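[job 0417] fold request received: Beta-phosphoglucomutase
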Amino acid sequence: MPITAFLFDLDGVIVDTAIYHYQAWKRLANELGFDISEEFNERLKGVSRTDSLDIILEHGGLTLPDEEKTQLAAQKNQWYLELVSRMTPEDILPGVANFFSQVRKANLLTAIGSVSKNAPLILERIGLSDTFDAIIDGTKISKGKPDPEVFTKGAAELGVSPAECVVFEDAVAGVEAGRRGGMFVVGLGSPDVLTQADLVAPSLEHLSVQEVLDRAQAVS
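[job 0417] inference complete; emitting structure tokens
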């Protein structure tokens, strides 16, 4: 079956907002009386806000009522939004513009598959809101990655089958979600970390659309 659609995670694939998440989570942890490192923050990549908070609280040895956790998650998001609201098209990662030029020439459908509820804001700030045929974010799903819902909904909204899709992800949870969704998965990062990916490259800057299509269709 030919590949007709590319589905992209947002953070770490098109832009890198990990530093903003880290700064906001670190500020929250500090106010709760402990600290988190950048290495620890790697565990939060591709994980929903509520699940990230649970991981952080466990790290700090804290157990809090749901009401307080809701308030803390909202506070973290407010700090994060203050940071991402300053983003511009200059924050788009290297190679993304060239890759999407190739995508358009290949007449492929495109979608964002992000667990972040802030994905539309980020796309607006970097000027890519109109680039995608579908945007699936945290407001449209009930299960975070590694559940495949964010990608299977993306395929459904594009009107294609999972077998026609390629997923681009930088996180272990996202790679697993794509694989569980029955899609060919391109991991962007280290092959030692993204071991479940069908193809791994450092970033979109190091890939061509034709290379991805050839590899994906070879195994379909």
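[job 0417] notes: DSSP finds nine helices and six strands in the chain. Strands lie at 5-8, 109-113, 134-136, 165-169, 184-188, 199-201.
[job 0417] exit 0
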